User: Fold this.
Amino acid sequence: MTELSGSGISVDLPAGWGGHIRAESVKRLTPAGVDPPVVVRSPTVVHLGNFPLPVDRGEFGTGVVEVMQTQDVFMVLFEYESSSAGTGLFAYTGSPGPVTAGDFDPNQLQRGIPGQSGLQLFFSEAGRAFCWYVVVASHLDRADAMPFINHVLRSLVIER
Assistant:
């Protein structure tokens, strides 16, 4: 097992898996003639997969899901504004899981690709709001991925 950690998030990856944590960043841009400065926030995003992840990838997997093969699994942990924690969509408190093959649906994909299936879970943990998004390359074989997905979910630790 390999531990991936950063930005108050840690997770144990199954053998052969890889991942990356992009820390939240805030930039203040001051274009000529603009007052006050423009604030651009990039959220904390975790990408995990059981295949080599393309370097060029969108927050929810653009550039990744298009190259997935039959047994591939891609996971995203996307952090939203902390003011959303515990409210509306993020009312569920605690890390999600375990999940079953029945939780996956082709209609839960950010971008529908024939044969693929997805899962989106929204939750709050440690005063932070998240979406856990998982794509399996094969809806028909999704049950094979459940032990790996649930291993990752069980190992997820989120701190303030």
Observations:
- DSSP finds one helix and ten strands in the chain.
- The longest helix spans residues 146-155.
